Amino acid sequence: MLSDLSFEEIKFYVKHMGLPEFRGEQIFDAIYSGKSLQEVSNLPKAIKDILCKDYPNYAIEKVYESKDGTKKYIIKYSDRNIVECVLMKYKYGYTLCVSTQVGCRMGCKFCASTLHGLARNLSAGEILGQVLLVNRDIGGSRKNRMITNIVLMGSGEPLDNFDNVTKFIDLVSASKGLNISQRNISLSTCGLVNQIYKLMEKNYNITLTISLHATTDEKRKEIMPIANKFTIDEIVKACREYYQKTKRRIYFEYTLIKSVNDSLDDVKRLAKLLKGLNCHVNVIPLNVVKERTLKGSSRLEAYKFADMLKSNGISATVRRTMGEDIAGACGQLRNQIIESTTK
Ligand code: SAH
What we know:
This protein is an alpha/beta fold. It has helices spanning 7-16, 22-32, 45-51, 124-137, 162-173, 193-200, 217-223, 232-246, 264-274, 299-311, 332-342; strands spanning 59-65, 71-76, 82-90, 93-97, 101-103, 118-121, 147-152, 185-189, 207-211, 250-256, 279-285, 316-318. It has 2 domains: 1-56, DNA polymerase, domain 1, CATH 1.10.150; 58-342, Aldolase class I (TIM Barrel). Residues 106, 108, 110-111, 153, 157, 188-190, 211, 253, 255, 284, 286-287, 289, 329-330 line the site of S-adenosyl-L-homocysteine.
């Protein structure tokens, strides 16, 4: 698919297809404007006929808008698979949370994305498609980019789809492409330690975010199967090396689950684990998923937890929850749609 290709690769493709060179720029512009092939007006039908099997045919299937302005998009791909992405408006611009896989195979107990397992990986161009389509939907184009920040925190485990995800980062941050600064891109992982080392080699300026959610391996194993493969100590060691190499502050996500990971002992252990690492902890009250039995701590408890972390020397804030009225947590909406269409 053409959105998998960089500008240079598109130029090569155009040459290979026997088309004049200037068509390369037009095709690239059309793709980056998020237009479907039918909507492109400056390409003759004969060229469209040549392009049609390679031109992306993903589309926005549905948009849900929350009272707080957050928008959730359902994107449909050519094989009818759907994913979600979420647009959040902040003072500085728009952040888009993208999905990296259709479903997920990590099996975290609190997460809706993994309930149906992994359907398939998304290609780099399919992940990019989410950005291009939403950018267009809010009035942007290739030259007038409206989306300023990207978080790889939608459905899927980005480091379980390493090659496509890193290619996506290359494409979306390319100056000829959307030119989104790598400093404005966050990649969130449940902690695939071997892949974190591989990511380090890329020397990106992106922010690495770790979904930690527990302070002992025993507890982590109860809620995150990946903990059977990598210990918390191994994750934190990789983070320390990641910081040494990139000088990028590490972020930790800590979803508070009632009576599971929200004790004073957890605060103390977490502070000890992260001591001396340039990091920040985002405390997130659990977004309750109806298929799951785990209960969230209250917002007040989240503030208390963050305050205690701070008094133990760790930078921490409570994450704002957005879009709760539109099934905000990743994967929730896709599950609702799958259920309603399979009934
Ligand atoms: N697989 C990656 C990225 C996708 S999940 C990862 O694990 O980081 C993005 C974030 O949402 C993770 O921190 C994940 O733990 C969190 N999350 C998933 N379900 C949640 C829920 N129901 N409530 C709160 N946070 C949730």
